[in-house]
Amino acid sequence: MPPRITCREDALPALQQAVDQANQVLARPEFYAGIRKHKDFKSTKVKPATIAQLIESCELEFHVDTFEPNEDQGKTLGLFSHKRPTYLSLNATKLANRSGWSSTFFIEDVASTIIHESVHAVDHANPDYRFGHKNRKRGSAPYWIGNHAFHLLTHDPVLELAFDRITEIDEVAV
């Protein structure tokens, strides 16, 4: 059973739609098949098939909330914190005014960012494995899987998310 993602009932409609889309991606067999087919991820020795299995069998429920960015988090779209490992936080300001996200595929972009952050949460929940990203490298499991979700949602295999604007806190990039 894949992880389940929730948000507050009074959350912005766009956030509710993005959470719904993220859950739909996590329920799709082709999502996991695509991860399993990937050759290798940067910043880890954990095989893609193992990561796919860890995500697919994760029984955690993640809650998406928002945060008000401080001056160092202005460009940040999403955060994962080891202090609150079942919470995935999105920048409230950027979510409300849609800045920093894809203008054409806003909901899909937010949903894929949620998937990216959930990969960090699954990584955290499995201490015997480490598949985060160091120095925000493209090609790492969180980046590639977030983009894979985006491709499934947009039906565009070329578009990429702007994960270089996402920062994680509390040494997520172990």
Q: What would you say this structure looks like, in words?
A:
The protein has 174 residues and is of the alpha/beta class. It has a single domain (4-165), classed as Collagenase (Catalytic Domain). Helices cover 41% and strands 11% of the residues. It contains 6 helices and 4 strands, in the order βαααβββααα. The protein has helices at residues 13-26, 29-37, 48-56, 92-97, 106-125, 141-154; strands at 4-7, 61-67, 78-80, 87-91. A 4-stranded mixed β-sheet has the order 1-2-4-3. β3 and β4 form a beta hairpin. α1 crosses α5 and α2 packs antiparallel against α3. The longest helix has 20 residues, at 106-125. The chain is globular, with a radius of gyration of 14 Å. Residues 164-174 have low confidence and may be disordered.
What are the main properties of this structure?
single chain; 174 residues; alpha/beta; Collagenase (Catalytic Domain); 4-stranded mixed β-sheet; 6 helices; 4 strands
Outline of the structure:
The chain is α/β, with parallel strands linked by helices and 174 residues long.
Question: What does the secondary structure layout of this molecule look like, with pairings?
Answer:
Blueprint: E1 4-7, H1 13-26, H2 29-37, H3 48-56, E2 61-67, E3 78-80, E4 87-91, H4 92-97, H5 106-125, H6 141-154
Parallel strand pairs: 1-2, 2-4
Antiparallel strand pairs: 3-4
